[in-house]
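Input.
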Amino acid sequence: MKNMTDIVSCFNENAVSVSHPSCSSYSNINACISHSATSTTPPTTPSTQNTVSSVYKTTLSNQKQLLITVTWCRTHSTQGLTITFGEESHVAPSFRLNTNSRFFRKKKGSKVVESQESKVEVLWDLTKAKYSTGPEPVEGFYVAIIVDAEIGLILGQENNKFKERTVLSNVTLLSRREHCSGNAVYATKARFCDSGTWHDILIRCSGESEGLKAPVLSVCIDKKTVIRVKRLQWNFRGNQTIFVDGLLVDLLWDVHNWFFNPDSSGYAVFMFRTRSGLDSRLWLEEKTVQKDKDRVEFSLLIYACKNS
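Output.
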């Protein structure tokens, strides 16, 4: 059997393998930033997450599958949670909660969501929720989704009341989408498969103000630089193959709007997407190929707004 080095060389001579995380918590993210910065580049606080949306696939005991999209958002005036059930978000049943205490003080409760296919109940407790820099709570909370009397999804800390429910569905995180704004430093965490470990991801765009002749894009995973794109204004789109926990991951970037479309919102897009097996195709090419329905892939999509 080929070892990891042989497999990497088969796909891309510049592919990078990441398998041993060295940053293991949000508290260490500043250390990652300092490590990636050069001696002439001072550390910078990461941009702020405005919206975080995760898509889960839950499989019930009767093999029925349901997509659950959980979105946390925060603006200057409000902070909230939206949960959508099904693929078509504009017609699918949904649950909405405003968690800003100035407008909505009921941070604990339950609600039945009307659905023609299943009986869905949402239970939540955000009374002691603690937040980091983004809209998503990091501890002291739970959100539970009950589908046809089965536990479809639990986020946060499990509550004793759920121990009475013996049936727990099989849940897989399919994708995560983040909207960030601020400076050109974006920090997040991701786990690329259910059996993998959490990795710290740092995306940084350095410019002339930091002593460089031209903008440079660097992406680090667990303090290890996986790509470094020089002359970014000419290499504003591209892709790189990396390996994380033994998985092929396509890393794609598009920062065109940062340089050539100042009238738009100014969002750049970064995507990490796993590729199953030893398939040599990029995920963009797979739309013309019959895909295995049992194949599970994960994608992380980051929309990054660099304020001028």
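Residues 4-47+183-306 form one domain.
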